[in-house]
């Protein structure tokens, strides 16, 4: 436990456990609250909003707004559960190590490798989307060439020190957030003023009800949209992975968690609401981003071209955060003996080089996928990533519920950042996430992703039995860094 009077910006300079084993070995605490907050936005506000929202709108119509509200509330509860775990144990392995400590070592192995798998899938999805965006200007250039170029660009960024990475991610995320705000303001102005645009009298909130009603595809449309909606939120859990490199994680991570879900909910619901007030939902197709379509529909072609640049920046931002998160998770797995020891080694500027190299090699497989299956790649990657995302969230919630039981049994200090509505809120959220897994299997288009996901779990179980030995088979020993609620105040 850190002394009450210690320097809060270097809260855990040595990061040692009670038995002397060091945590976060080789990593540097160079991420500020600003970096972490925008990094989470960078991962969660990306292609899922700018491109994937077309699919969810087609599935549910205007009712998709309700799906984003419900999904956003569930994500907030998952993040608060993760936040309570992180504040008690601020380690780079994050929920991988929490699952190992509070559930079973295999649970940590499963969630750690699944998160890395999820991040690679989402990164390939984003790289594929960039190839689609570049087709706006270069329709004759094969998509895989753009994907390859993006992979090497992201590799270069992730080899830099964490502070440089955090600063680049901040500016990447800031560009797309500013673009969303501009779009909202411009959209509201178009609805109110009209600017002489044809069919202006049909624009406005009534457009949400004029084309088949608010639930044009019924309750089933709403339920089936969740498989796409939850993918859009995937990646926000990267906040937990930054714990090993955050300056004063007890302050910056709770602040980031409290702000990000609300902002995501605001951006998704308000932005898509404005878009559907201008452009009827049944005219939004997956062939073009709804953000571009809205300006095309009112004749602002120059704005549509500029927005393509923003879309590319958004995808780069998300890829950047995803590869960072996957690399740090593999670093944490190596610390607990569940990944090759080389993954735990870092460069002089604190970068776990081997994990980044491994992630880049995995991304190159995405280049091959885009070369072989250019038309099917985007949807399949999204469905697989949804399964991986909800599996990670399930294990985070289960780890948190188990930790609360241990806290009560061992009479530990009360949490400094407790989850709200405990225990009912946590159990309702867990039930909802299980429902999402069921829906992935029920919806015909995403059903293959469930089977592939289940095969992934079986494959990891076999790998665990075959390759994990010694320390990796034992629950990890985590130092409880909880302090009395009023200490130091």
Task: Briefly say what this structure is.
This protein is mainly alpha-helical.
Folded structure, characterized:
- The protein is mainly alpha-helical and 489 residues long.
- The chain has 17 helices and no strands.
- The radius of gyration is 22 Å and the shape is globular.
Gyration radius over CA: 22 Å
Helical segment count: 17
Question: Judging from the principal axes of the Cα atoms, what is the shape?
Answer: globular
Q: How many extended strands?
A: 0
Low-pLDDT parts are 1-15, 17-21, 23-29
Give a quick account of the main beta sheet: strands, pairing sense, barrel closure.
none
Give the distance, in angstroms, between the N- and C-terminal Cα atoms.
Answer: 16 Å
Helix content: 55-70%
Q: Strand content of the residues, in percent?
A: under 5%
Mean pLDDT: 79
Structural class: mainly alpha
Q: How are helices and strands ordered from N to C?
A: HHHHHHHHHHHHHHHHH
Question: Which features does this protein show?
Answer:
single chain, 489 residues, mainly alpha, 17 helices, 66% helix, globular, disordered N terminus
Layout of strands and helices, then pairs:
Layout: H1 33-44, H2 47-50, H3 53-60, H4 64-88, H5 95-102, H6 105-134, H7 143-158, H8 162-193, H9 218-233, H10 238-241, H11 249-278, H12 290-297, H13 301-335, H14 353-372, H15 377-409, H16 424-442, H17 447-467
């Amino acid at each position: 436990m850190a002394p009450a009077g210690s320097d809060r910006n270097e809260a855990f300079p040595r990061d040692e456990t009670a038995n002397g084993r060091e945590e976060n070995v080789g990593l540097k605490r160079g991420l500020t609250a600003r970096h972490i907050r925008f990094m989470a936005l960078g991962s969660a506000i990306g292609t899922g909003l700018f491109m994937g929202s077309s699919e969810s709108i087609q599935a549910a119509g205007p009712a998709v707004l309700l799906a984003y509200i419900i999904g956003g509330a569930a994500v907030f509860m998952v993040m608060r559960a993760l936040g309570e775990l992180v504040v008690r144990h601020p380690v780079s392995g994050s929920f991988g190590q929490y699952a190992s400590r509070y559930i079973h070592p295999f649970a940590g192995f499963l969630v750690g490798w699944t998160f890395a798998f999820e991040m690679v899938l989402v990164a390939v999805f984003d790289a594929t989307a960039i190839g689609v965006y570049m087709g706006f200007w270069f329709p004759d250039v094969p998509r895989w060439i753009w994907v390859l170029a993006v992979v090497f660009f992201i590799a270069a960024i992730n080899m830099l020190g964490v502070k440089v990475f955090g600063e680049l991610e901040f500016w990447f995320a800031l560009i797309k957030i500013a673009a969303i705000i501009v779009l909202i303001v411009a959209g509201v102005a178009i609805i109110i003023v009209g600017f002489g645009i044809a069919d202006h009298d049909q624009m406005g909130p009534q457009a949400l009800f004029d084309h088949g009603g608010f639930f044009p595809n019924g309750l089933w449309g709403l339920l089936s949209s969740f498989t796409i909606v939850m993918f859009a939120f995937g990646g926000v859990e990267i906040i937990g992975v930054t714990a090993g490199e955050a300056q004063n994680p007890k302050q910056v991570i709770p602040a980031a968690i409290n702000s990000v879900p609300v902002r995501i909910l605001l951006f998704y619901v308000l932005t898509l609401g404005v878009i559907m007030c201008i452009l009827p939902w049944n005219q939004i197709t997956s062939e073009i981003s709804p953000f571009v379509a809205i300006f095309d529909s009112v004749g602002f072609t120059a704005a549509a071209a500029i927005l393509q640049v923003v879309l590319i920046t958004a995808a780069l931002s998300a890829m950047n955060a995803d590869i960072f998160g996957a690399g740090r998770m593999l670093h944490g797995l190596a610390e607990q003996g569940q990944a090759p020891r080389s993954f735990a080694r870092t460069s002089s500027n604190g970068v776990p080089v081997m994990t980044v190299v491994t992630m880049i090699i995995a991304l190159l497989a995405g280049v091959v996928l885009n070369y072989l299956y250019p038309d099917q790649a985007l949807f399949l990657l999204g469905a697989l990533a949804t399964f991986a995302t909800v599996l990670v969230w399930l294990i985070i919630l289960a780890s948190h519920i188990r930790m609360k039981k241990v806290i009560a049994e061992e009479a530990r200090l009360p949490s400094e950042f407790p989850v709200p509505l405990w225990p009912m809120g946590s159990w309702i959220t867990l039930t909802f996430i299980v429902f999402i897994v069921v829906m992935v299997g029920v919806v015909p288009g995403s059903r293959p992703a469930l089977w592939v996901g289940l095969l992934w779990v079986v494959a990891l179980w076999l790998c665990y039995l075959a390759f994990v030995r010694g320390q990796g088979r034992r629950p990890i020993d985590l130092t409880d860094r909880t302090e009395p609620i009023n200490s130091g105040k």
